[in-house]
Specification:
Oligomer: single chain
Structural class: alpha/beta
Mean pLDDT: 96
Distance between the termini: 73 Å
Largest sheet: 10 strands, mixed
Number of strands: 32
Strand content: 25-35%
Number of helices: 17
Low-confidence stretches: 1-7
Radius of gyration: 25 Å
Helix content: 25-40%
Shape: elongated
């Protein structure tokens, strides 16, 4: 089996290739591939029409009447199927699926995803520039088109967390100068951009001056704050919280990367979009984060389309958002459309409900048929991603809050996702705070060797009753070692299991490890098959459900990996303490007063 090279757009303009395509379009030479008998989903006009497609190398040479041509080296019988441009995921993180880029490609290519826009800020936060270089190198080897972005916010909230690296404007400009970098990844430090912080101004300006993409993260922004962020040059957002939020951002002129990772919001998004006279050309689709078991069972961007269609969105609109709209956003006029002169990224779907891909063509090569790969996909050695757990073993005392006196008032972080400040009264026993009823311990230990690795411990409320502990090094976005639990003893066992494993996720109860998912590549990814990782992750998620009762939509398993996302409004626990990026408030200890 051969592996197609994924090149830059200029490769389509080689004079010899264009000459051959012109000759084939005129009928003066045979086509390399003829896709015959299918129904073309026209993402420009909205029509579904009978058409055949002829290819020469990576180029589409002609789109013509069915049966008009039979001269081709290879004929793909597409009778009864629907023909679409290859799907384009406008914002995602490979690391969230806990597998390597090669394994991710093996999962999504057979489903019709031919291009993804990858923000490797997880690798950047742990390994620094070497992590981004690794991402670029890995992407170059794949038949899946991975457009790698320069992580803009490493760390996501400077001064209130310590990551494994620090990307200032000079480092950002360096990455943007690399040919393998397609733009500036989501600018998460919203407050820094709006307030004119010199660091963030320098980073955004480096993106603008590069002439490449500048991508955003505008969670909760509206009115003057949203306008200020856009005026600074940030042009997209995927952090939607409601249909009202979606519509206000569309009206403001933001490019929307509507993500599938918050399924409970999709029905109201569809209702809002169906109320419009046409699909906004600024609406694109993305996955953002997909856990490994979901990737294996449901897929990537194809799963987002299926759910949107199931909730009532027209398949034609869903496909346009995932193809032509996405290509326009990415400034890739070679992608997103089945037309002569465009790049031959084409999916042959059995139907427009299941979106089961019968054949997938990427860059003019038939890469998948009937869910099976027809090309080799090359792995990349771990290199700089290995050995990221740079902290010693911890003890139960490291997860206790020290205090003097009889009683204490403590600050708390209330409710998952949309956090807010709270307070509780607690007893002091043997020089430590007794966890009050309704509280959950959270501890973050720096693991990158850049700061003190002793855990900073806080108290959560609204997180249920924990009958054990969960530790994770997948902890957005600095990915320090984060531990949740109902008692310090189980928390120490869980933390030490991950220190020994090189990172990952662990669930502990009664002093014993119930489930362990080792992720030794940067503490984020396993060098194993998707099937193996998905099985290990599903086992771990099931074990977590035995030690805490989830309460959707906010108290869910996914909340544990986002609880330390310090760039979002409200208090968050980090390796510095309890921090609030909006107010600048930092508490190195949750103790407010003691008596």
């Amino acid at each position: 089996m051969s592996r197609p090279a994924v090149r830059e757009p200029d490769d389509l303009n080689a004079p010899a290739l264009r000459r051959e395509a012109v000759a084939a379009a005129r009928g003066d030479r045979p086509l390399d591939i003829l896709i015959s008998g299918g129904t073309l989903v026209d993402v420009v006009t909205g029509e579904r029409r009978a058409a055949d497609i002829g290819l020469v190398g990576p180029l589409i040479a002609s789109v013509h009447a069915q049966g008009a041509r039979t001269d081709a080296k290879t004929v793909i019988d597409a009778a009864g199927t629907f023909l679409s441009p290859g799907l384009i995921d406008t914002h995602m993180h490979v690391e969230s699926s806990m597998v390597t880029p090669a394994e991710y490609a093996r999962a999504v290519l057979p489903r019709g995803v031919t291009t993804v826009c990858w923000d490797p800020h997880e690798f950047g936060n742990v390994v620094g520039l070497d992590g981004v270089r690794w991402a670029v190198e890995a992407a170059e080897k794949l038949p899946l088109r991975l457009l790698v972005l320069a992580p803009s916010c490493v760390p996501s909230a400077p001064g209130i967390e310590v990551a494994g690296a620090d990307f200032d404007a000079d480092k950002i400009a360096e990455m943007l100068s690399w040919p393998g970098i397609a733009g500036l990844a989501e600018v998460m430090n919203m407050r820094g951009v709006i307030d004119g912080d010199p660091r963030m101004a320098g980073i955004v300006n480096a993106g603008l001056q590069s002439g490449k993409l500048v991508c955003g993260h505008a969670r909760g922004l509206k009115d003057a704050d949203l306008a200020a962020s856009m005026a600074a040059g940030v042009a997209s957002d995927h952090e939607l919280t409601s249909a009202e939020d979606l519509m206000s951002k569309l009206r403001a002129g933001l490019t929307i990367e509507l993500r599938g990772s918050h399924d409970h919001l999709l029905p109201e998004f569809v209702t809002a979009l169906n109320g419009l006279p046409h699909l906004p050309q600024t609406l694109t689709l993305c996955t953002d984060d997909v856990f490994p078991d979901d990737l294996l069972q449901a897929g990537g961007l194809d799963d987002v389309l299926r759910r949107l269609i199931r909730y009532g969105l027209s398949p034609d609109w869903a496909l346009r958002a995932a193809t032509l709209n996405a290509a326009m956003r990415l400034k890739r006029d070679d992608l997103g459309l089945i037309a002569a002169g465009r790049r031959a990224d084409i999916v042959v779907f059995d139907d427009l409900e299941s979106l089961r891909a019968r054949h997938v063509i990427a860059n003019g090569t038939l890469v998948c048929s009937h869910g099976k790969l027809r090309v080799e996909i090359e792995d990349t050695a771990a290199g700089a991603l290995a050995g990221s757990m740079k902290l010693p073993a911890l003890t139960a005392d490291d997860f206790r809050i020290r205090a003097e006196g009889r009683r204490v008032r403590v600050a708390t972080i209330d409710q998952p996702r949309f956090t807010r400040w709270g307070e509780m009264e607690a007893e002091i026993r043997d020089g430590h705070v007794v966890l009050p009823e309704g509280g959950t311990l959270i501890a973050v230990a720096h693991r990158h060797g850049k700061a003190d690795s002793r855990p900073k411990v806080g108290i959560l409320t609204g997180w249920g009753h924990w009958r054990g502990a969960l530790a994770t090094t997948v902890s957005h976005d600095s990915h320090n070692l984060t531990v949740f639990g109902g008692n310090p003893e189980d928390m120490a066992v869980a933390a030490n299991a991950l220190i020994a494993a090189g990172g990952g996720m662990a669930v502990v109860s009664g002093g014993k490890v119930d489930a362990l998912l080792p992720l030794p590549l940067a503490g984020l990814v396993a060098d194993a098959s998707l099937e193996e990782v998905a099985a290990g992750f599903a086992n771990l998620r099931e074990a977590a459900g035995r030690i805490v009762d989830w309460n959707p939509p906010y108290l869910v398993f996914k909340a544990v990996v986002g609880a330390t996302l310090a760039c979002n409004a409200g208090p968050h626990q980090t390796d510095v303490g309890i921090c609030d990026v909006a107010t600048g408030k930092v508490l190195t200890s949750p103790i407010l007063a003691a008596e």
